[in-house]
Amino acid sequence: MSGRAGDRRVATPVFFQPAEPWPSVRGKPPVSEREPTLRDALAPQPHILVVEDDGEMRHLIARHLRDNGFTVTPARDGREMREVLRTPAIAIDLILLDVMLPGASGVELLKELRASSRIPVVFLTARAEEMDRVLGLEFGADDYVVKPFGRRELVARLRAVLRRTGAAPEAQSAPAAPVGELTFDGWALSLGRRELTAPDGSLVDLSGAEFDLLMAFLAHPHRVLSREELLETARRRIGDLFDRSIDVLVSRLRRKIEPLEGSPPLIKTVRGAGYVFVAEVGHR
């Protein structure tokens, strides 16, 4: 929702009863209390769900957060927000939620969410009155950002909430650089040298985006990764992408690690969901 004067839509009451509980925030002990693992080294950045009906505002927020190291999934309204939260392949660390939305308002969505989940929520609104902020916090919001806001302030507030709630502990201290090799189906990927060795001992050239994509698959074997998650991995290398761009990138990677016609696929397509890496992955 944009902050234009006179834009005061009245949200239609929606009494939504989730068919399944809202997902809980990822429960992990603080980084300082556990040994670092390979998954920590390959872990994605904190994942923010941005629920904002104004397309331009949504795009600007998403781009700024990505530029500051966050993974972002956009949603236009409560319906899309629910769909994202019910997608097993997408783990959300924090929701940036506009108060004035078409259909169910941000306050209504927060009340639904708080019935079964403690995922951190930061309200985003053009309403600056103190009472509005107090009510938002009383309903269970973790913070409140008023439009117009400074970009640095937004990032600082989100990081503060993540720190305070422990929703994304991997973001609180930089992980050590990954070392060693990942192995799969006779292949070896050197994490330090960023080299891929084929079963016959030959080196296979990978672009930066292909390497990052393969790392994402190896960090999460046997788990369906959505196109949105894979897009976030590749964007760091080749900028703005769209859904079909990731299909092309996956196809290029397949040609390099599945070179023999008729050989079992290592990356399978899951219709309507994304891709899954099916080989066993080792670390040495």
From TrEMBL:
Keywords: Cytoplasm, DNA-binding, Phosphoprotein, Transcription, Transcription regulation, Two-component regulatory system. GO terms for molecular function: phosphorelay response regulator activity; transcription cis-regulatory region binding. Residues 1-38 are annotated as: Disordered. Residues 179-279 bind DNA. It is found in: Cytoplasm. GO terms for cellular component: cytosol; protein-DNA complex. SUPFAM superfamilies: C-terminal effector domain of the bipartite response regulators, CheY-like. Residues 1-10 have a biased composition (Basic and acidic residues). GO terms for biological process: regulation of DNA-templated transcription. Residues 47-162 form the Response regulatory domain. Residues 179-279 form the OmpR/PhoB-type domain. Its main location: cytoplasm. The modification 4-aspartylphosphate is found at D98. This is Regulatory protein VirG.
